[in-house]
């Protein structure tokens, strides 16, 4: 496992996705060593590093060149990356050239979520899994509605985590912001 | 109502107790214009200002002289304070000289919670209410056990609030830390 | 204060709005004894009873006749209701005949939220407050967007409450479902 | 992955530990195919089944014979169990005969938590991990204090999950009760 603080960070790139969320995504993904994974909006590389350890192949995309750079640095820090391809492009564009996806993570989409899901749906293998994370309330509704319109039976889980600081005077709980995880599986 | 940002703050004094928690405390207190209220650990004055507006008399205590000062400033800012007495002392000590309490708020106690509750119990009117807030997990257990041992039927509510930032790109929810509110009423 | 369990309930009517949420709504409403309040979607009467105690006049509306009946029973149980008018109609319709609103609570709207907010906006006094509660994620987005389009500066707070059962073996926390509270004030 | 509803349940046995919590425990455990795992208080077998799939060897203990029976049924349902030993005994007693533990999960302890942790500490391999789940506030404090006194640097994470029901009228979020996860690693 990685600790949140293990990751190299940059002020201009969001992430890494926090530990509990990474754990839940990994679990829901049912990842296996032969899976082809796309991480759309790889940010700091929190999700990319987790799947690099467990999947066959990972393709990580981000519009922000700095995100690609910092994801690359984190992969290197953890001795990972041999099975990872980094693409600095818009997800909706980069996905056009990717086929046979087993697991598609959408951790960032700008205003392209519907487009990205259209292409992901097309490129996803049968039994393939889509996992979308959201920090905006709007994204939750948009993701669920789009997944429904594509014929999926989507699920949504919202997670509120707080972490303790174990002080001399007692245990002080500090909250993380709520994160929603929307998931769907292709028939 | 006050907004959280309405209060003058100081780096060295915790508080103010956040809006939702102030609202719940006010509601649970059933405060009326004849009530005598003690605010033990008044900090920034978040609770003191609320009760100054609604109670007959408020006595606010804090070991930290800066807390007394900043509470005083906030009362002044809101045009309140005529019915408020500020005491710079340990709660366990100051409470010895106070009688006929209708509502006792314990928002800070250091390691004196049991002592403070012993004295509060003695000085509390029949039908009087005790309200304790906790940011430490340990304080929750200590408060409930002490209230039970004093013969109360204590209640505990834990509140996790997140507030939205309404941005152009959507609604981003930001979490406050969890707060527990323990309450009891004298027979 | 009322306990959640104080209210008469019916299987076919949702509510009452839980204690912490009632407390926060009351606080945000800044209700005073001269205020004219509309409770659109009064359900079990949880909100209606609170405002009946504190406002000048309350008009409570529900499309469900059983909600009107049970709200009436709860008002009677608490010795309230002299200043309450109950209307069994769609909110969007009933609101057309109501003027000079100081506080509008929308606790239920079916698919009429935008219509209801259009009329509320028209009938709301200057400095009047709108408070919308939501259990659906979609309602949060719809409410915020509509309030923005009407020229308001809306706020949203999400509240996760858990209540303790104080057992011999310890304190067991039981969660309520998350509730969002959207608010806005007319200039 | 298992869904919560995949597990056979019994009214008299708590569990299964919910999906998000199982995911986080798995992640924090860093389980590998050679690990020896103890699940103290296996209940319905939620945790036992997860580790049976991923660890070398699992020993599951419960004082309640019905928990042992239902854990056995769930293992069978999922085609697992060849590497699992079930013991119907008190954890503090059964652990005395177990050596070389890599991962110790304590999901139930009655009033024996301190005793159980004393023995777990003794039997845990270097680099071994202890994971305790708590539904009682008291257990959080007890676990952290005991782990500290045994020389660990314990961590605590509290998780509040809500799951969506995707309805025609929108997304309704339903809360699970809060769960705390306390972890520590032997040097
Ligand atoms: N349309 C799009 N295509 C590709 N990347 C996008 C995008 N819209 C937003 N993003 C990227 O999505 C990222 C979201 S932050 C992701 C954090 C990441 N999961 C981690 O664990 O580190 C940002 O870096 C942003 O640049
Ligand atoms: N034994 C004690 N007696 C009096 N005050 C105490 C105390 N132990 C801690 N305190 C005070 O308790 C305060 C807790 S912070 C309270 C914040 C306050 N409710 C607000 O809304 O602003 C601190 O200012 C601290 O100095
Ligand atoms: N368009 C509409 N006009 C009026 N009432 C409506 C409505 N759409 C839904 N409702 C009503 O809104 C209610 C929501 S439940 C409200 C619970 C209430 N706040 C309490 O504390 O008891 C339901 O009773 C439903 O019948
Ligand atoms: N001292 C002790 N030794 C062993 N089991 C115990 C115990 N005290 C409590 N338990 C057991 O701990 C269990 C807690 S419920 C555990 C649920 C389980 N993690 C799951 O996923 O299904 C109960 O079945 C209870 O019988």
From TrEMBL, chains A, B, C, D:
Belongs to the methyltransferase superfamily. Archaeal-type CbiT family. The keyword Disulfide bond does not apply. NCBIfam families: CbiT (TIGR02469). Keywords: Cobalamin biosynthesis, Methyltransferase, S-adenosyl-L-methionine, Transferase. Pathway: Cofactor biosynthesis; adenosylcobalamin biosynthesis; cob(II)yrinate a,c-diamide from sirohydrochlorin (anaerobic route): step 8/10. S-adenosyl-L-methionine binds at residues 17, 41-45, 62, 91. Residues 35-141 form the Methyltransferase domain. It comes from Methanobrevibacter thaueri. One of its GO terms (biological process) is anaerobic cobalamin biosynthetic process. SUPFAM superfamilies: S-adenosyl-L-methionine-dependent methyltransferases. It is an enzyme of class 2 (transferase). It catalyses: Co-precorrin-6B + S-adenosyl-L-methionine = Co-precorrin-7 + S-adenosyl-L-homocysteine + CO2. HAMAP family: CbiT. The keyword Methyltransferase applies. Its EC number is 2.1.1.196. One of its GO terms (molecular function) is protein methyltransferase activity. Gene3D superfamilies: Vaccinia Virus protein VP39. It comes from the Archaea. This is Probable cobalt-precorrin-6B C(15)-methyltransferase (decarboxylating).
């Amino acid at each position: 496992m990685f600790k949140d603080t293990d990751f190299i960070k940059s002020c201009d790139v969001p992430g890494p996705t926090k530990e509990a969320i990474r754990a839940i995504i990994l679990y829901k993904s049912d990842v296996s060593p032969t899976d082809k994974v796309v991480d759309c909006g790889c940010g700091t590389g929190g999700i990319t590093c987790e799947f690099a350890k467990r999947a066959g192949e990972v393709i990580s995309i981000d519009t922000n060149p700095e995100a690609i750079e910092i994801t690359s640095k984190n992969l290197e820090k953890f001795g990972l990356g041999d099975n990872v391809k980094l693409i600095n492009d818009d997800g909706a564009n980069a996905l056009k050239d990717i086929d046979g996806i087993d697991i598609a993570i959408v951790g960032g989409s700008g205003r392209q979520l519907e487009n990205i899901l259209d292409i992901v749906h097309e490129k996803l293998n049968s039994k393939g899994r889509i996992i979308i994370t959201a920090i905006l309330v709007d994204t939750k509704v948009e993701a669920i509605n789009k997944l429904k319109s594509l014929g999926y039976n989507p699920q949504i889980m919202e997670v509120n985590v707080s972490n303790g600081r174990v002080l001399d005077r007692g245990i002080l709980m500090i909250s993380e912001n709520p994160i929603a995880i929307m998931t769907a599986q292709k028939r």
